[in-house]
Recover the amino acids of this structure.
């Protein structure tokens, strides 16, 4: 046994120390104990690299090396420093189940194909600063015992941190996420994950039963970005970023309600000043109502017909007034109704409308009041004006009721009734604070 062990030592010294070399043969050392320092600096691996289930007892350096084929470090143990700084992985990089007992450095590394770090354990600090992931990056179920940084990194494809555990500081400063990223069920509770100056361009899935914590105050959300909340979270963010929040559609009504209430209590509540986050809490209520648009709190017990009408009522309330949180949506409906009824007047009764307007304004008639003697544009303008007059009239004037023919009165009465309904709805169904909240968006 002693002779064999000695041969291994000599073998490692000769084989595992190369610089500026192009290695044209396959590296094959599965289930091997390597007791000497490994140093491949500025090297190029033309063939596959296999270190599966290998134990590196000393420092390992692959500084600025290029792996042109498959690199397999599955279930490998690095007992000392693992340095892959500025390395390039052109094919799949497999680091699943790896144990990093000391510092691991992937600073400025480039992964052109998929990279897997799932089920790995990082006991020392992990540095992925400036990394470029061109394909899927999988860190699911990994455990980071020490500080982890992805500062200035780029994720061009899907990134998976599902069920990962972070015991210390998690940093995504100035990171760019071009594709979805999944943090569901990850343990991020000891400190806030720092997304300062990070750019999110797609969907980020977050949430855990133990309440994850994120700092999005300085995060940039591009068009199409979404924060899908799947469980409890604690968020630091400005009120204008709440519009990027969504609740996972698979959640039931009561789970969504619990998540929203916990979010309001954890993130937007000040014990010393109850009014400090009033607008944020108001926006979260609207956020909850939108998320449960097609859900009923009694959907398990109520009949299909009852549930259908409940959802229909919700939908009508949403598209017309934003559940009372956006009452000024009615302005668009009012404008549309004025145009529609104006068109009806223009087609069916332009002569009567123009004659009535001239009569009530007591203008001097310089000619006939017949609509036939005036341009089409003039007739359309007066019909639209009359439509708006009827819509905003609280009490119909006597001359308006007596001047027109019977069929014309019916059209006027219908529009007037619709106008009263809209006005009453605006006054009674608007939520407290909704008008103030809407006006603040203009300043």
């Amino acid at each position: 046994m002693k002779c064999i062990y000695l041969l291994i030592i000599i073998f490692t010294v000769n084989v595992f120390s190369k610089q500026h070399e192009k290695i044209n043969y396959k590296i094959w050392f599965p289930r091997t104990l390597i007791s000497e320092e490994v140093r491949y600096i500025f090297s190029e691996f033309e063939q596959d690299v296999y270190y599966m289930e290998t134990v590196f007892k000393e420092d390992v350096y692959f500084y600025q090396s290029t792996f042109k084929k498959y690199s397999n470090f599955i279930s490998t143990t690095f007992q000392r420093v693992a340095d892959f700084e500025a390395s390039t992985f052109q094919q799949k990089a497999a680091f699943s189940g790896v144990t990093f007992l000391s510092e691991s450095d992937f600073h400025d590394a480039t992964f052109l194909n998929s990279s897997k770090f799932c089920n790995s354990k990082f006991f020392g600090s992990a540095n992925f600063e400036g990394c470029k992931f061109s394909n899927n990056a999988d860190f699911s179920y990994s455990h980071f015992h020490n500080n982890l940084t992805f500062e200035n990194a780029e994720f061009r494809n899907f990134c998976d941190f599902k069920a990962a555990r972070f015991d210390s500081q998690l940093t995504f400063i100035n990171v760019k996420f071009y594709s979805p990223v999944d943090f569901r069920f990850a343990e991020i509770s000891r400190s806030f994950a720092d997304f300062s100056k990070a750019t999110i361009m797609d969907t980020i899935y977050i949430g855990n039963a133990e309440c994850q914590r994120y700092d999005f105050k300085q995060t940039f959300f591009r068009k199409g970005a979404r924060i899908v909340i799947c469980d409890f979270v604690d968020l630091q963010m400005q009120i204008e970023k709440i519009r990027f929040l969504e609740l996972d559609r698979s959640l039931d009504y009561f789970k969504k309600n619990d998540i929203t209430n916990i979010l309001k209590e954890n993130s937007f509540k000040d014990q010393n000043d109850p009014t400090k986050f009033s607008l944020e809490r108001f926006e979260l209520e609207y956020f909850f109502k939108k998320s449960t648009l097609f859900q009923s709190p009694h959907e398990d017990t109520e009949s299909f017909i009852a549930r259908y009408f409940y959802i229909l009522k919700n939908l009508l309330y949403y598209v017309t007034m934003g559940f009372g949180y956006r009452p000024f949506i009615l302005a668009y409906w009012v404008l549309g109704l004025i145009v529609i009824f104006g068109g009806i007047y223009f087609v069916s009764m332009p002569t009567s409308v123009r004659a009535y307007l001239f009569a009530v304004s007591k203008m001097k008639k310089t000619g006939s009041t017949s609509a036939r003697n005036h341009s089409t544009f003039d007739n359309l303008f007066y019909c639209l004006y009359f439509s708006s007059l009827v819509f905003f009239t609280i009490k119909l004037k006597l001359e308006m009721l007596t001047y027109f023919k019977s069929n014309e009165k019916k059209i006027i009465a219908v529009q007037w009734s619709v106008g009263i309904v809209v006005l009453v709805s605006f006054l009674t169904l608007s939520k407290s604070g909704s008008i103030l909240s809407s006006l603040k968006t203009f300043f």
Summary: The first strand starts at residue 17 and ends at 19. Residues 406-429 form the longest helix (24 residues).
